[in-house]
Amino acid sequence: MNSERERVWQERLVQLRASGLSQRAFALKHGIPIRQVGYWVRRLTGAQVASAPALPPVRVVPVLAPGAPLSLRSAQGWTLTLPSNVPASWLAELMRAL
Fold first, then answer.
1. Residue 70 forms beta bridges with which residues?
2. What's the pTM?
3. CA-CA-CA-CA dihedral for 19, 22, 28, 31, to nearest 10
4. What letter does residue 79 receive in the DSSP assignment?
5. Is 41 helix (H, G, I), strand (E, B) or coil?
6. How far is CA 63 from CA 23, 83, 89, in A?
7. By C-alpha distance, which of 68, 61, 64 is closest to 84?
8. What does residue 36 show for φ and ψ, rounded to 5 degrees?
C-alpha cells in the first residue's frame, strides 16, 4: 500500500474525529466519496461496520386492570350492580331467570 496515501488518510481521520461530524457529513463537506471514508475508517482503525444493537429479550405480561362494574337496570326501576369479572354463563343464567 502507498504509505503517502495512508498518511493522508490518517490525518483525515484525525480531522474527522475532531470535527464531530458523521462520516457522511465529513465526506460531503470535503468532497470525498462517502464509501472511501468508510473504507479508510475500517482499514486504519480496524473498526467493523456497526450493526444494530441487540435488543434484550422482553416478556410481555398482560395486566388485568379492574374493570368497571356491570350495572343492569330494569324498566321497573331496580338496578343490579355486579363485579366486572362475573362469568358470562352465570350472567346469562341470571338474565333468563329475570
1. 82
2. 0.46
3. 60
4. E
5. helix
6. 45, 17, 23
7. 68
8. -70, -40
In order along its 98 residues, the chain shows pLDDT tens digits of: 588 999 999 999 999 999 999 999 999 999 999 999 999 998 888 754 444 566 677 777 666 567 778 888 777 888 888 888 888 888 888 878 76
Q: Do 73 and 79 meet the contact criterion of CB atoms below 8 Å apart?
A: yes
Cell output for 81 = 350492580
Can you spell out the DSSP letters for 24-38?
HHHHHHHT--HHHHH
Nearest to 81 by CA among 72, 93, 91, 68: 72
